[in-house]
Amino acid sequence: MTRKIFFVLNGISVHVETDPARRALDVLREDMGLTGTKEGCGRGECGGCSILVDGEVKLSCIMTAAQLEGKDIVTIEGVCGEGDLHPVQRSFIERGAVQCGFCTPGMVISSVAFLNANPSPAREEIREALSGNLCRCTGYQKIVDAVEDAAKKMHGGGRDG
Ligand code: FES
Ligand code: FES
User: Fold this and answer.
1) Pocket around ligand 2: residues whose beta carbon is below 6 Å from it?
2) Which of 9, 14, 23, 142 would give a disulfide with 97, using CB separation of 3.0 to 4.6 Å?
3) Is residue 161 part of a domain?
4) Per the confidence metrics, is the pTM higher than 0.85?
């Protein structure tokens, strides 16, 4: 059985008519065409499917479509301002924090939420904040560098140690 589910997606009010038990990840990728949100493990362990739900990071592979109802959803397609990349995205590019790129949308989503809550993080805090996002390629060093750099771009923040 299907029903209409209303939510805000990247700043625009939308609705889908779907089985409320479907995965939110599939609604976003298949129904809304937003394929930036990735499926890695499909069981809540890799962070590839991270989205913002009312400003908090959630894993869309373990969310149902019903849980989108009434929420403010931001995917990687919606983090940038009009015509420009988000500072986190720019820093990931400038610091060479992207290799295959599969983990990058989830990493960026988690980093944006983290830096909104913690404008001046220590490196250890960045590592901790991104510990739920797995990357097979980079060894994480350049990702942490990028988030530190983004903190400076966004807030003049970031500190040693
Ligand atoms: S695909 Fe959702 S956590 Fe891995
Ligand atoms: S850049 Fe390839 S998985 Fe992170």
Assistant:
1) 98-103, 135-138
2) 142
3) no
4) yes
Sign of CA dihedral 41, 102, 80, 30: negative
Report which protein residue has its CA nearest ligand 2's atom 2: 100
pLDDT digits (tens, 9 = 90+) for 100-128: 999 999 999 999 999 999 999 999 999 99
- Of 23, 43, 78, the last residue of a domain is 78
How high is the pLDDT of residue 160? Answer: 52
Q: How far is CA 63 from CA 20, 93, 98, in A?
A: 10, 30, 27
pLDDT, mean of residues 64-81: 96
Confidence class for position 161, pLDDT limits 50, 70, 90: very low
- Going from the Cα of 98 to the center of ligand 2, the distance in angstroms, rounded, reads 6
Q: Residue 142: which domain range?
A: 87-155
Question: What's the structural domain count of the chain?
Answer: 2
